[in-house]
Amino acid sequence: MSRIGKIIITALFACVVSHGNAQFCGTKFRGDVKQLRAEAAKMQHSRKSMKSSDIQYVALTVFNVESLGANLPLEVDKLYEGLDFANRYYAPAGIQFFICGSPRSLLGNTSYTYSESRRLLTPNNVSNTINIYYVDEVFAADLVIGGFSSFPWEQEQLIVIDKGFISNSLSSGGILAHELGHHLGLFHTHETFMGVELVNGSNCESAGDLICDTNADFNLSTGGLEGCNYVGNFVDVNGDLYNPDPRNIMSYAPSECLSRISELQAERINFYYNQEFSGYLQDCDFYPDLSVDSDIADLTIFSGQPIELELNLGNQNSNNESVRAEILFSITNEDQVSNFLIHS
Fold first, then answer.
1. Which domain holds residue 52?
2. Which residues pair with 147 in a beta bridge?
3. Helix, strand, or coil here: 293?
4. 93 within a domain of the structure (yes/no)
5. Which CATH number does the domain housing residue 70 bear?
6. Is the confidence at residue 304, as pLDDT, over 50?
7. CA-to-CA distance for 276 and 56, rounded, in angstroms?
8. Does residue 290 sit within a domain?
9. Fewest C-beta atoms under 10 Å: which of 106, 114, 163, 238?
10. Residue 69, in any domain of the structure
11. Does 159 fall in a domain?
12. Helical pair 76-90 and 169-183, crossing angle rounded to 10 deg
């Protein structure tokens, strides 16, 4: 898929706050319970797979939201590596994601709640793509969290993810896969809005995540894990021992653990893909393929100082057609936005 690159040169003079203690996901149940139960029952009993024989490609538009103060960097290499992991997890559903163009820089706030993101970020959405906004901090009920997503039946669509959660490839892939799961109609495996799912599975069609091949889950953020293995002895109201799957992408295990979906989760993903997303872009070949190369890593810049930036731009298009490229430069000051001119 075609990608166009941008150069961002940033001078940072502030400390980055650790996100190690942040909670994981802030996506809360929103939807018509009766309709969702009916759809779930239909999917559980359908003998016809909703998965296409062909791989379905879904375009993502990624935004790097930067504020006027200190910003966490968007580690683009970890972003792409995380996407590769997420695509492995979604392979059983026959769906693969790709980033349409390069990540886009967007001036915004340092932190966002769900309501703020719907009001302030969705106007930037690119149609026929899944829009993902990486921000410095994500809040829900005054707690820092990893991210949240809209559901496919909602009018305003977006995913918001804390940049601190993509510090390594596994974590990046885990949280991206998790929020994409919500975006494609999956609930948490420990969802309780429609009732607590029993370990024996007798109410799996009407409670929990409405999916019968994911084990009942009490919410793994409360304990019972050694690394990515469940070793707890939690029981349900019947006294039956839970046996949740810490590697399911919709659990609350650490994002590094999340790596698989179930067969019926794949069916649900395809149900909502066919219903809501089948018209989304499956390629972005209208973007030219450009390479950008430079030996410059960091610069210390003083007022009035001339600087020389040597960039090598390469056109990778097979037909060698002429294209116009945009190179974005930004300079960030600890206290304020720095006005500057570039003379070339």
1. 23-193+252-277
2. 25, 161
3. strand
4. yes
5. 3.40.390.10
6. yes
7. 13
8. no
9. 238
10. yes
11. yes
12. 60
